UniProtKB/TrEMBL annotation:
NCBIfam families: lpxK (TIGR00682). Pfam families: LpxK. The keyword NAD does not apply. Its EC number is 2.7.1.130. Pathway: Glycolipid biosynthesis; lipid IV(A) biosynthesis; lipid IV(A) from (3R)-3-hydroxytetradecanoyl-[acyl-carrier-protein] and UDP-N-acetyl-alpha-D-glucosamine: step 6/6. This is Tetraacyldisaccharide 4'-kinase. GO terms for biological process: lipid A biosynthetic process; lipopolysaccharide core region biosynthetic process. The lineage of its organism: Bacteria, Pseudomonadati, Pseudomonadota, Betaproteobacteria, Burkholderiales. ATP binds at residues 54-61. GO terms for molecular function: ATP binding; lipid-A 4'-kinase activity. Keywords: ATP-binding, Kinase, Lipid A biosynthesis, Lipid biosynthesis, Lipid metabolism, Nucleotide-binding, Transferase. Transfers the gamma-phosphate of ATP to the 4'-position of a tetraacyldisaccharide 1-phosphate intermediate (termed DS-1-P) to form tetraacyldisaccharide 1,4'-bis-phosphate (lipid IVA). PANTHER family: TETRAACYLDISACCHARIDE 4'-KINASE, TETRAACYLDISACCHARIDE 4'-KINASE, MITOCHONDRIAL-RELATED. GO terms for cellular component: plasma membrane.
Length: 336
C-alpha cells in the first residue's frame, strides 16, 4: 500500500473523491476548534506531541523514547500518554512493567519498561493525561506518543516524524497516505530515513551492540552473527529496515517470520525451532518473552542530531520562563 501511495495510479485517482470528503471533514473539525465550538483542554504542565501526518511506521516511538530519556537526564519527571494502538479494549489503563501487552499495547509497555516513566493509555488523550497527573502529581512534563490529529489536547511543542517516503503522492486517505494536509504548522520536523524529502532535522537509526533476553542476559550481535540457525521474528510496520540493519551487522537468518504490525505472535511461536536462537525487536519482545523468554531482543536506537536537541530545549526553556517564571506559559500553547 505504501508503495502504491508513492504514485498517483488509477486506483488512487478513483479514491480521490473519497479523499476530498475526508479532507473536508477534517477541515471543518479544525475550524470548529479554532472557533471554540469544540474545546481544546489545556493541562497544568507542558505537553510535547510526537506524531506523523502519514499512516504507517516512521520511527515515531523510538523518537519518543529518545525524548523521554533526554528529558529525564535533565532531571524532569516525565509522563507519557498513548492510545495504545492494537490493544484489546479502550479503557484508561496505567501501564505497569508486568502488564499484558494485549491490554495496554506493545509500544506503551516498551516505553515504560525502557524508561521507567509513568504511562497511561487511552483513546482520549486528555482523560489519560489527567488520570496520569492525578496518579503522579510530581510529573512536570508530558509526552504524547502520537496524537497530532487529537486536537482536544492542547500542546506546546509539536514534532512531526517522517521517513524516506515523505508525504507519498501528497493526497489524503484513502487516495494517499496523508492523515491531514501537508505542509501544516508544526514546531519541529524529524526525518528518520537517509533521504529526507524536505527540510527538517535528521535522526540516525542504529542497533545496540548487544541483544538481551527476558532474564537480562546479553549476547553480542557479533556472536549471534556466527550462528547460522538464527530465526528472526519481526512484527513492525517496516520489517525490512530491521532485517537490513541485522544484515549490516553480519546476521543472516536461516528463517524470517514477518507478521503484521502489533501481531500478538502466538501463532508463530509453535512453528519456531526450539533449538535455534530467536532474534526480535525490543517492541516485539514485550509479547514474545511471555511465550519464548530466551528470545534475543535487539534495541533500536534513534539518535537525532544535536541541533534538534538544541531546538527542543530552546522551546522548553521559553515555556519555563513565560509568565514570570511559572513552569507552563500560555504564549507557546498551540491551538488547533
Amino acid at each position: 500500500m505504501r508503495a502504491a501511495w508513492q504514485g498517483r495510479g488509477w486506483w488512487c485517482r478513483l479514491l480521490w473523491p473519497v479523499a476530498w470528503c475526508f479532507g473536508l471533514l477534517g477541515a471543518v473539525r479544525r475550524w470548529a476548534y479554532r472557533q471554540g465550538w469544540m474545546h481544546c483542554d489545556r493541562l497544568p504542565v507542558p505537553v510535547i506531541v510526537v506524531g506523523n501526518v502519514v499512516v504507517g511506521g516512521c520511527g515515531k516511538t523510538p523518537l519518543v523514547l529518545a525524548i523521554v530519556e533526554h528529558l529525564q537526564a535533565q532531571g524532569r519527571v516525565v509522563g507519557v500518554v498513548s492510545r495504545g494502538y492494537g490493544r484489546r479494549g479502550d479503557d484508561f489503563v496505567r501501564v505497569t512493567a508486568d502488564a499484558d501487552p494485549a491490554e495496554v499495547g506493545d509500544e506503551p509497555l516498551l516505553i515504560h519498561r525502557r524508561t521507567g516513566a509513568a504511562v497511561v493509555v487511552g483513546a482520549r488523550r486528555v482523560h489519560a493525561a489527567r488520570m496520569l497527573l492525578h496518579a503522579v502529581p510530581e510529573i512536570d512534563i508530558l509526552v504524547c506518543d502520537d496524537g497530532l490529529q487529537h486536537l482536544a489536547l492542547c500542546r506546546d511543542v509539536e514534532i512531526a516524524v517522517f521517513d524516506d517516503g515523505g508525504v507519498g503522492n501528497g493526497w489524503l486517505l484513502p487516495a494517499g497516505p496523508l492523515r491531514e494536509p501537508w505542509p501544516r504548522a508544526v514546531d519541529l520536523v524529524v526525518h528518520t530515513g537517509m533521504r529526507p524529502a524536505f527540510a527538517g532535522f535528521r535522526a540516525v537509526r542504529s542497533l545496540a551492540d548487544e541483544a538481551v533476553d527476558a532474564q537480562g542476559r546479553t549476547r553480542s550481535l557479533s556472536l549471534l552473527a556466527q550462528d547460522e540457525a538464527v530465526q528472526v521474528v519481526v512484527a513492525i510496520a517496516q520489517p525490512q529496515r530491521f532485517l537490513d540493519m541485522l544484515q549490516a551487522r553480519g546476521i543472516r537468518p536461516a528463517t524470517v517470520w514477518r507478521l503484521p504490525d502489533h501481531d500478538d505472535l502466538r501463532g508463530v511461536v509453535q512453528r519456531l525451532d526450539p533449538a535455534a536462537p530467536v532474534v526480535c525487536t525490543e517492541k516485539d519482545a514485550v509479547k514474545l518473552w511471555t511465550l519464548r523468554p530466551n528470545a534475543w531482543a535487539v534495541r533500536l536506537l534513534q539518535a537525532p542530531e544535536p541541533a534538534f536537541w538544541a531546538a527542543l530545549d530552546a522551546y522548553l526553556y521559553t515555556l519555563r520562563n513565560d509568565k514570570n517564571g511559572e513552569i507552563h506559559g500560555e504564549i507557546r500553547t498551540r491551538q488547533p
